[in-house]
Design a protein that fits this description.
This protein is of the alpha+beta class and 907 residues long. The protein is 41% helix and 26% strand.
Length: 907
């Protein structure tokens, strides 16, 4: 602390020790006060009563750049901003009141800049109450004051702008709470003029839009972001808005708040949705189907192909028209398919066949091709509706299961190794390859060709194949090679080892013809499975051959034989000379859970419905010394039954009554595939017949009346013309409902998860009832809606379709004059809609089938036409929304149809 008067007080009288001590203490206290004043960040001045400064602290001198003498010469007020001098207190008034004064003033820094300070004047009072002077302090608050005033100005400008805007404007803090909002915000969300928002902004956003919006805001840069979101209005309705947001950052670059606007675009979104639904509803059935579809004229020439056809085949419409579509069919199938189609065209009969269609990448896949004729009123075929449904995976699965079954038969058909290998080659060609070569390692360790089966030109082994065979036998690892293409000698091959334990018995080479594309990984796995089973069969055959040659060798190899038999995946058994089993391998115990030594237990694990057939076929085969084969169900360890193929052959051993070797191979997957294929064929035939009839019937009526009006309209009376027009309208509406139901079934089953939203059931029901009254003005609809319903979690189009179908169903079967009732209630967390009529009703035994596609009750089928799709569509749509649907008889006659959808409750 520097003083403006540097003089020192005169010492006291000499020898006055007391006064000297007092002076020393006073000087020390002054030094401590000066050090304290110099250490603080505030500007400090000690002033006398005459306003002259006694001392200035170091902060004052550093801030102003003045010395103590310069400060005193011109007075401390020289650094106060001229506009703030009037804010300072009057010295005389201060002396009179002797009270502290505090205020905000600007002080000039040494570089000429004025900065805001918090100034405080405190009176210094003596021990006897006299006023000694004043202590003034000034603390720099410039940055805070400027920031606050800029914020206040910005908020004022923002308030003026946002108040005038019709859009919602809101400022959100980083924590998610709302800082400020405009009047449009308060009006939309139902806030009072003086009510603070308070809520988290995310609570007003539709639950399905929250994650997207939060992510967009979190990733905001300097550029604003824009999103389309739904905001909940004060009445609970969600409306679409365009939301734009920008981030406001503080001086350190951190997000201080987010400013967003939201403009209502709900009407536009509804209009866009209406256009989209309209376009989707009236899109042609051909474009809606997932199959390859084209329409051919009466000569079988394509005149239209759908988008799926173009995407799949890579052929554009112009490349497919006429008979060019045949270029997409495998050359081996095109000839037969073309001939069959010509025969169908000549007879006008439906055409069905399985063909291979070429995909855009060149791969061929199996399809079920069907051609249904469309006939004119006179019965002439005018077009063919042709579909191709991909069944490639099902066909391959069935073919492979069939191949495995045939392979199992080949492996158990003979105990001669050469015959077994030849049987394997015949099974593999042409199922998975165009040729099959089997090389066996002889006793001397040299390879020899045992089998070469397939195309004669391909029986010669090339250098690459020979090298691969030698490597496979040496390493026991599969090798693939060749050059797929169409050049001379170009082919692909896979060579797989025949391994048994640690030994490699040989190698099997499968080759494809020059035009093939090469082996897939799936084909390689199948080839390795064949080689593994072939190795087992060869080892088994060799073992049994050794037994035939010498009984002594058989006894010494008994342990090896049993280990080998236990290793096979099939159940293996051997009978004695009396035909009764005297040996089971380990697989028997693993499958049935029975002790292999219990030789009489086999009859107890065969299905009761199959035991007679097994005994009968076994007795016949045993008596005639013929190979026995039978399919039967075997009870597993867990109690379930699975299908097995049993096969046994006699083993001559020099006696008149030989022993028998048998094996049982599981064929459960094959049986299921066969049953599924049979069911699919039945459903396909029913679908084609029903759709063909239901499409043809209204089309025939429309064409007939249209032809009548065209030819004789001029001479018909007004009543006849109106009657024909009404018939055309009625049949067209019937056709439209059929097409819509088929589109809905195809759309729901191929779409996956359905997006639902909170809706007011009373509004949805009112809209459907209004439409129904327009279509059927003569029917009374009685509507009862419970009060206080929660919103229903539903998809609006699906809700309308379900209720419209149920009302149309009741309209169709209700007697004239009888009202139809509609009730809406809320029970157990679900909104329940019931449609009740007084029609013929549904037999109780049919209520579990009424929602199956194409099912029609025998009691009502004759009362009104239909395809049996409407109620099936209802079930698919309700279940897609997470609800349930039912049908029941009404007391007093008639039917109750009802469906329940989840209610939306606020937690």
């Amino acid at each position: 602390m520097q003083e403006s008067d540097p003089g020192n007080p005169a010492p006291g009288p000499a020898g006055d020790a007391g006064r000297a001590a007092d002076l020393a203490r006073a000087r020390n206290e002054a030094l401590r006060e000066r050090a304290f004043a110099d250490s603080v960040a505030a500007l400090i001045i000690e002033r006398r009563l005459d306003e002259s400064a006694a001392r200035y602290n170091r902060r004052w001198l550093e801030y102003t750049g003045l010395t103590a003498e310069e400060s005193e010469a011109r007075g401390w007020r020289q650094v106060v901003h001229p506009d703030d001098l009037a804010l300072l207190p009057d010295p005389a008034a201060v002396r009179d009141r002797r009270e502290p004064w505090e205020g905000e003033i600007r002080l000039r820094r040494h570089d000429g800049e004025y900065r805001w300070h918090r100034a405080r004047f405190v009176p210094a009072i003596g021990g006897e109450g006299q006023l000694l002077g004043w202590v003034s302090s000034g603390l720099d608050i410039h940055d805070r004051t400027v920031a606050e005033r800029e914020r206040e100005a910005a908020l004022a400008r923002l308030q003026a702008i946002t108040t005038a805007l019709p859009s919602i404007v809101v400022e959100v803090l980083p924590g998610g709470h709302i800082a400020t909002c405009n009047d449009a915000y308060r009006e939309y969300f139902g806030l009072k003029p003086d009510e603070l928002p308070g809520q988290l902004w995310i609570e007003f956003v539709h639950p399905e839009d929250r994650a997207m919006l939060a992510s967009a805001i979190a990733s905001l840069s300097e550029a604003p972001t824009q999103s389309e979101i739904r905001l909940r209005r004060h009445d609970g309705e969600y409306r679409w808005h365009i939301a734009r947001a920008i981030v406001r950052r503080d001086a350190g670059g951190a997000a201080a708040s987010y400013v967003a606007t939201a403009t209502d675009i709900h009407a536009r979104k509804l209009a866009e949705e209406a256009v989209r639904l309209s376009e989707g509803r009236y899109r042609t059935l051909i474009e809606a189907l997932p199959q390859l579809v084209f329409v051919a004229n009466e000569r079988g020439e394509a005149v239209f192909v759908n988008r799926r056809w173009c995407d799949y085949t890579g052929l554009g419409p112009e490349q497919s028209y006429g008979r060019a579509w045949l270029s997409a069919i495998h050359v081996a199938d095109a000839r037969n398919g073309s001939e069959a189609l010509r025969a169908a065209i000549a007879s006008g009969a439906t055409f069905t066949d399985t063909l291979r269609f070429r995909r855009a990448d060149g791969a061929f896949r199996w399809h079920l091709a069907q051609a249904v004729p469309m006939q004119s009123f006179e019965g002439a075929v005018i077009n063919w509706f042709v579909t191709a449904t991909d069944i490639h995976e099902q066909r391959l699965a069935a073919d492979r299961e069939q191949l495995r079954a045939e392979l199992g038969r080949a492996l158990t058909a003979s105990l001669d190794p050469q015959e077994t290998l030849e049987s394997i080659a015949r099974v593999a060609v042409p199922a998975i390859a165009d040729r099959c070569c089997i090389d066996i390692v002889g006793p001397d360790g040299h390879l020899s060709r045992a089998v070469a089966f397939g195309e004669p030109a391909a029986t010669v082994t090339g250098a690459k194949e020979a090298e691969a065979i030698a490597a496979v036998v040496r390493t026991g690892e599969t090798r693939m090679g060749g050059a797929p293409g169409r050049g001379v000698g170009a082919h692909s091959f896979v060579t797989v080892p025949m391994r048994q334990g640690d030994a490699t018995l040989g190698a099997i080479t499968f080759s494809l013809a020059p035009a093939a594309k090469g082996f897939s990984l799936d084909a390689r796995a199948l080839a390795e499975e064949i080689a593994s089973r072939a190795a087992l069969a060869v080892a088994n055959a060799r073992l049994f051959a050794e037994r035939v040659r010498t009984a002594e060798a058989l006894r010494t190899s008994d342990a090896r034989y049993r280990a080998l038999i236990d290793a096979v995946p099939q159940i293996v058994w051997v009978t004695g000379i009396d035909g009764v089993a005297d040996f089971y391998n380990r697989r028997w115990e693993e499958v049935t859970g029975l002790d292999p030594t219990d030789l009489e237990a086999w009859a107890g694990v065969i299905h009761p419905d199959d035991i007679d057939r097994v005994n009968e076929t076994w007795g016949t085969a045993f008596a005639g010394q013929q190979t026995w084969e039978c399919e039967y169900r075997l009870r597993m360890r867990g109690g379930e039954y699975r299908w097995y193929l049993g096969r046994a052959s006699p083993l001559p051993d020099g006696t008149l009554t030989p022993r028998w070797l048998g094996a049982a191979t599981e064929i459960e997957a094959i049986k299921h595939a066969q049953e599924a294929l049979q069911r699919a064929n039945v459903l396909k035939d029913e679908f084609l017949g029903l759709v063909s009839h239901e499409l043809r019937t209204p089309l025939t009526s429309i064409l007939g009346h249209a032809s009548l009006l065209t030819r004789h309209g001029a001479i018909l009376d007004e009543g006849s013309r109106l009657s024909s027009l009404r018939d055309i309208t009625r049949e067209a509406e019937r056709l439209q409902r059929l097409v819509e139901n088929m589109l809905v079934l195809a759309g729901v089953e191929g779409r996956g998860e359905v997006v639902t939203e909170p809706l007011l059931a009373q509004r949805l029901v009112a809209r459907v009832v209004t439409n129904h009254n327009v279509r059927y003005p003569g029917r009374e609809l009685r509507v009862s809606i419970a009060s206080g319903l929660s919103p229903v979690d539903a998809q609006p189009t699906y809700f309308d379709q379900v209720l419209e179908n149920l009302l149309s169903n009741s309209e169709k079967y209700s007697p004239a004059g009888e009202p139809i009732e509609i009730t809406v209630t809320e029970e157990g967390g679900y909104v329940i809609v019931r449609v009740l009529d007084r029609g013929a009703g549904i037999p109780e035994q049919e209520t579990s089938h009424i929602f199956e596609p194409f099912f029609r009750s025998e009691r009502t089928a004759r009362a009104a036409p239909g395809a049996g799709l409407g109620l099936a569509v209802c079930r698919r749509l309700v279940e897609a929304q997470g609800g349930s649907i039912w049908a029941a008889l009404r007391p007093g006659g008639g039917t109750e149809f009802g469906f329940a959808l989840p209610a939306v409750t606020e937690e």
